[in-house]
């Protein structure tokens, strides 16, 4: 994926030096080539030319702004200095427009060579305090004064490709090698010119002149080949009025934007590359690294050089060092973050206590610090009588003077001193006779003439305040320590990313470890590209570059996991499937307009980060049909074939010695009523499987054909083991066999669908239509409070909300899995047993998340919360140790977490511990997912017919010449040749654990974006006896909050209602009579919507905005005739008509219908 980010410069950082370092790495491109010592006769003469000016080969600068400023061409150190000065406002062309907000800083260097910012108090006392309060003395002459600022300088795009391209380039002939490198550079520039320029605007949406500069590198930090282009757009936009403004590219916040740029760039590169380099053809591959062919059903993931499998394995092995180093550095960063966060929390706790202390001791004048006092003429006017003054100040130094003869007595009696915090009170009054000067008619005082008056005199009371004197120095010191802590953290992060640290990490990784020597030796052996002997596939084996799709399939892909898609998402899909490149932008707009007119798609009146979101009418229609079909199943009657179900249950009771509860019996009886549909909702561990198993026994005995279906292969396997179904399969496989005519249903069939909450709308629609047409019976079994479908929609939830269906549902809420009271209480609380049948109460409970908090309280009571460790590494070591020391077999214990990254880290930690203990041993096998030994616990990640299913767990019993023998938990033993879809299985995801029952469960809690109440419920209901929860000390509260979140599944029924309501308003009548006031309001509203979507651009370019401006200016606007927006319906043919769209380069096929 292309990397896109904002580049910022902070004070103390030499931007010029940073850019020049990038140039020095460009020069190293030549040295890098020489290091491979490729035997190329033409190399010498050309290499001399390249060495003379490598920057001319590997750098570029351009754009209208750089053309004007004479900066276009290739980069030099002089140009770099000029670009840096322009961006920082140090050049006369930008100094009037770019102002850095500077702050004065006093800096001293610590023993580690890092800058420490000093406060005024530090400067006075000659020392500063570290975050842990250690005093560090410094000399005045060591203090340096500087100015500080933070400035966004560039928007950077890092154009990368599959690593095979980086390995191919150094093996080419010199002419081809140079051509390939220039092609990467030229394609990046083409992306800028044809795609990125339209997004270069200021915050008001204004366009202007901009520039760019780039440099090409052909190696990465690990020393492995890594061809990539750094493309930078300086944060300078020159408008038509000559002013220079900052660039605001909000689109970089949108994931679909990143994906669209990535796919357009790569499709442009693939087209040019394959036309130029016939000996190094690029092919598409899927996420499992399998080649895309005409027979493939998988989606295109990326493109690679069509090397044979052996060569691709060598490249992966050669890239392993980078992966290992990156992994270790990532782990070190996480630990550093944990430690830093704890220290920050400690300082912030001090800050909170300080603020509370300030609040508790808050005061207002005349309550304040005694500044001065003494006798003086009243208000210091010499003509006035003698009086006494007291000056007090508030906490911020604001002073106020109080006067009163009695103040002298009060001050003397109170014994207060200057600087004391005092309470001054003059509210008590007494009447006294005083002589006051007499004034003439003009208001002037008559000298020497007084008159006697009775006035109220303040009786003052002064005392030392009981409130504490809170020094502002404390706040300043706390802030300084926090800033130093953050600076130290940033310095350590910088070091972790440095080449020096990467080398040290690699040396540490290479230290001999038991069982790891061969693995690391293989990595070292493949260091030189010239020695790798990379070979291409045979021509007939090379896969497709692109695989075209009809628009229906494109829309299905875009809405596979969410009902929403954006224009950028469509652009990405068109680029990777059709190879449109930059043209995809125009085609996407045309396609969206055409599909809207044909009522295939509709805007949802909602935005992603920056773009309008669309959905398909088909999805909403399918979900509505699902509800209607299910209603029809319930209302359709069939003859009852088993008349005495109770007797059949009693017979099985005698045979098994097991007594089902009332709810389970009702489940079984409902299967044999006269309705063709049934829904059974059961809490985890409530005995759904037992009841389903007994139901199939009775049904088979009565002559029914029983079919068990599930959303995943793992659940399908469990269904086969736990029931007597005549046929079990995944729903995908069932739908395919029905479509191919290999499986036909009749009214004699009963279809059981387990974990039906995990079935998406499309699959449910195909299934229900098949069942309904055959007149068969369907029984949906599931729990909407567990993991929902990955695919779009959730039909089971829609059924439970329907007024006709919800009252006919069977419930199993008595949990039978847990074997002790506390485990049962935890499971019942997590599963919402008490409110499960009350939809309103359950909704309110889920919205509050109170049940999640209660579960954590219950875990805390029994000491099952393990959150004392400060770092992720310590926490993972702790959970791994406890998991391995658990005496249960691997089949009877479970370790669960949220992300694949944590799963891999825990798996590797446990594997290393077992290697050291000698519990796993023998020949090593390695695939793309990891390394394996005899005795390792594994999990399969793909369905392979008649071999294994996705999610199947087992143990490796032998490894011989890449043939792996596995004893699966089901009891089956399989020998598999070179299994690629196999991963270590000590830890697994919450999703994979659904449906499992074990004795003890261990949960590693992390603050992951996919956490929610449903995942938490699955984790808390797996164990019969004990569940323990592990998290780092600093993250624990965040983890708890993350599990309080509700699932963000979108109801297609509700979405459809919202769209219908908007369409109804738009299409009430063809012509709606409106008065002028109503018209003005509607015109204004439409203009506002335009602003929301397009931003506030030039008024003259937007008729709607011109109308808005006219309305604001009270100008008359020509009345519009409000016409229904609903377009005429144009029939869509089964196969879309193909139009030919002319291109500058070639003719392309477009998938837009006429």
Task: Name the features.
1154 residues, alpha+beta, BirA Bifunctional Protein, domain 2, 7 domains, 6-stranded parallel beta sheet, 5-stranded antiparallel beta sheet, 36 helices, globular, disordered C terminus, hydrolase
Instruction: State the helicity in percent bands.
Output: 40-55%
Radius of gyration: 38 Å
Tell me the count of domains. Answer: 7
- CATH topology name of the largest domain, in short, is Rossmann fold
Shape: globular
Strand line-up in the sheet with most strands: 24-23-25-26-22-27
Average residue-wise pLDDT? 85
SS content category: alpha+beta
CATH class of the largest domain: Alpha Beta
- What's the total count of β strands? 41
Describe the model.
Keywords: ATP-binding, Exonuclease, Helicase, Hydrolase, Nuclease, Nucleotide-binding. GO terms for molecular function: exonuclease activity; helicase activity. InterPro entries: P-loop_NTPase (IPR027417). The chain has 1154 residues and is an alpha+beta fold. The protein folds into seven domains: 213 residues, BirA Bifunctional Protein, domain 2 (2-Layer Sandwich), CATH 3.30.930; 50 residues, no CATH class; 51 residues, no CATH class; 100 residues, no CATH class; 68 residues, Arc Repressor Mutant, subunit A (Orthogonal Bundle), CATH 1.10.10; 221 residues, Rossmann fold, CATH 3.40.50.300; 184 residues, SH3 type barrels, CATH 2.30.30.940. Helix content is 41%, strand content 22%. It is built from 36 helices and 41 strands. The strands form twelve sheets. A six-stranded parallel sheet has the order 24-23-25-26-22-27, with helices on both faces. A hairpin with an 8-residue loop joins β15 and β16. α35 packs across α36. It is globular and about 130 Å long. The two termini are 34 Å apart. The C terminus is likely disordered.
């Amino acid at each position: 994926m292309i990397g896109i980010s904002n580049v910022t410069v902070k004070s103390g950082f030499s931007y010029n030096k940073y850019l020049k370092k990038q140039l020095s790495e460009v020069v190293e491109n030549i040295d890098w080539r020489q290091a491979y010592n490729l035997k190329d006769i033409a190399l010498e003469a050309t290499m001399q030319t390249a060495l003379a000016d490598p920057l001319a080969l590997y750098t570029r600068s351009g754009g209208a702004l750089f053309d004007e400023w004479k900066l276009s061409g290739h980069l030099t150190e002089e140009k770099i200095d000029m670009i840096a000065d322009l961006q920082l406002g140090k050049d006369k062309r930008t100094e009037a427009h770019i102002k850095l907000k500077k702050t004065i800083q006093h800096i001293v260097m610590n023993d580690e060579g890092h800058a420490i910012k000093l406060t005024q108090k530090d400067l006075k006392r000659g020392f500063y305090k570290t975050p842990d309060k250690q005093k560090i003395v410094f000399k005045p002459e060591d203090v340096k004064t500087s100015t500080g600022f933070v400035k966004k300088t560039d928007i950077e795009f890092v154009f990368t490709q599959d690593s095979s391209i980086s390995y191919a380039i150094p093996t080419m002939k010199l002419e081809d090698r140079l051509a390939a490198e220039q092609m990467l550079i030229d394609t990046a520039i083409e992306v800028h010119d044809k795609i990125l320029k339209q997004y270069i605007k200021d915050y008001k949406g204004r366009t202007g002149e901009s520039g760019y500069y780039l440099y090409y590198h052909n190696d990465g930090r690990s020393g492995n080949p890594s061809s990539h282009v750094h493309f930078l757009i300086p944060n300078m936009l020159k408008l038509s009025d000559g002013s220079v403004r900052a660039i605001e590219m909000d689109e970089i916040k949108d994931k679909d934007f990143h994906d669209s740029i990535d796919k357009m760039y790569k499709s442009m590169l693939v087209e040019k590359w394959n036309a130029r380099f016939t000996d190094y053809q690029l092919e598409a591959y899927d996420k499992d690294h399998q080649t895309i062919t005409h027979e493939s059903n998988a989606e295109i993931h990326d493109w690679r050089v069509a090397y044979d499998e052996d060569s691709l394995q060598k490249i992966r092995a050669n890239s392993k060092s980078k992966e290992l180093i990156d992994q270790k550095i990532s782990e070190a960063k996480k630990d550093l973050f944990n430690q830093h966060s704890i220290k920050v929390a400690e300082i912030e706790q001090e800050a909170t206590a300080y603020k509370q202390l300030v609040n508790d001791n808050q005061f207002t004048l005349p309550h304040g610090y005694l500044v001065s006092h003494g006798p003086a003429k009243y208000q210091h006017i010499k003509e006035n009588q003698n009086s006494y003054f007291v000056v007090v100040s508030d906490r911020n130094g604001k002073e106020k003077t109080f006067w009163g003869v009695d103040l002298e007595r009060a001050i003397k009696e109170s014994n207060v001193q200057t600087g004391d915090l005092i309470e001054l009170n003059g509210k008590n009054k007494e009447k006294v006779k005083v002589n006051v000067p007499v004034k003439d008619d003009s208001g002037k005082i008559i000298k020497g003439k007084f008159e006697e008056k009775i006035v109220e005199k303040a009786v003052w009371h002064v005392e030392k305040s009981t409130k504490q004197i809170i020094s502002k120095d404390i706040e300043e010191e706390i802030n300084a320590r926090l800033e130093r802590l953050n600076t130290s953290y940033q310095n350590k992060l910088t070091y972790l990313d440095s080449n020096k640290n990467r080398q040290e990490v690699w040396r540490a990784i290479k230290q001999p470890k038991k069982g790891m020597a061969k693995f690391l030796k293989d990595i070292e052996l493949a260091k030189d590209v010239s020695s790798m002997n990379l070979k291409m596939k045979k021509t007939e084996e090379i896969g497709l570059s692109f695989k075209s799709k009809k628009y229906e399939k494109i829309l299905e892909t875009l809405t596979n996991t969410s009902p929403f898609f954006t224009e950028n998402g469509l652009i990405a899909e068109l680029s990777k499937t059709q190879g449109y490149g930059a043209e995809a932008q125009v085609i996407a707009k045309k396609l969206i307009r055409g599909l809207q007119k044909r009522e295939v798609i509709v805007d949802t009146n909602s935005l992603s980060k920056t773009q309008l979101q669309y959905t398909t009418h088909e999805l909403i229609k399918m979900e509505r049909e699902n509800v209607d079909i299910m209603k029809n199943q319930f209302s359709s009657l069939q003859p009852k074939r088993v008349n005495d179900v109770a007797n059949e249950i009693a017979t099985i009771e005698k045979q098994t010695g097991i007594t089902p509860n009332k709810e389970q019996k009702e489940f079984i009886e409902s299967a044999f009523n006269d309705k063709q549909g049934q829904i059974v909702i059961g809490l985890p561990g409530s005995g759904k499987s037992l009841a389903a198993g007994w139901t199939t026994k009775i049904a088979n005995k009565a002559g029914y054909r029983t079919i068990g279906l599930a959303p995943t292969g793992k659940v399908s396997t469990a269904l086969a083991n736990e029931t007597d179904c005549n046929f079990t399969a995944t729903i995908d496989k069932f739908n395919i066999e029905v479509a191919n005519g290999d499986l036909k249903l009749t009214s004699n069939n009963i279809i059981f669908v387990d974990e039906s909450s995990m079935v998406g709308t499309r699959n449910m629609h195909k299934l229900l239509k098949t069942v309904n047409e055959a007149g068969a019976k369907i029984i949906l079994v599931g729990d909407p409070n567990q993991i929902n479908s990955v695919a779009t929609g959730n039909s089971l939830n829609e059924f439970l909300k329907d007024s006709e269906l919800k009252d006919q549902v069977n419930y199993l809420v008595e949990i039978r899995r847990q074997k002790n009271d506390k485990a049962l209480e935890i499971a019942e609380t997590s599963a919402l047993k008490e409110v499960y049948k009350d939809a309103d109460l359950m909704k309110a409970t889920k919205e509050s998340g109170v049940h999640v908090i209660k579960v954590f309280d219950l875990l805390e009571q029994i000491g099952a919360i393990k959150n004392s460790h400060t770092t992720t590494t310590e926490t993972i070591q702790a959970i791994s140790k406890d998991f391995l020391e658990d005496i249960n077999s691997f089949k009877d214990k479970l370790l669960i977490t949220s992300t694949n990254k944590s799963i891999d880290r825990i798996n590797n930690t446990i594997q290393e511990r077992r290697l050291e203990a000698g519990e796993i041993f023998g020949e090593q096998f390695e695939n793309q997912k990891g390394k394996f030994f005899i005795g390792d616990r594994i999990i399969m990640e793909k369905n392979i017919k008649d071999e294994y299913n996705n999610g199947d767990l087992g143990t490796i019993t032998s490894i011989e010449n890449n043939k792996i023998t596995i004893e699966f938990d089901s009891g089956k033993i399989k020998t598999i040749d070179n299994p690629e879809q196999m991963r270590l299985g000590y830890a697994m995801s919450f999703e994979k654990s659904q449906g499992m029952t074990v004795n003890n469960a261990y949960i590693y809690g992390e603050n992951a974006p996919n956490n929610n109440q449903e995942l938490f419920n699955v984790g808390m209901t797996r164990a019969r006896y004990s569940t323990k929860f592990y998290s780092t000390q600093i993250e624990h509260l965040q983890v708890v909050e993350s599990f309080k979140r509700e699932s963000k599944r979108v109801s297609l029924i509700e979405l459809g209602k919202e769209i219908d309501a908007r369409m109804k308003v738009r299409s009430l009548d063809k012509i709606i009579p409106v008065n002028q006031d109503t018209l003005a309001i509607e015109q204004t509203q439409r203009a506002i919507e335009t602003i929301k979507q397009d931003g506030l651009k030039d008024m003259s370019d937007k008729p709607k905005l011109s109308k808005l401006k006219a309305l604001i200016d009270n100008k008359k606007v020509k009345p519009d005739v409000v016409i229904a927006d609903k377009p005429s319906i144009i029939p869509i043919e089964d196969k879309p008509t193909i139009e030919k769209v002319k291109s500058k380069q070639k003719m392309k096929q477009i998938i837009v219908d006429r």
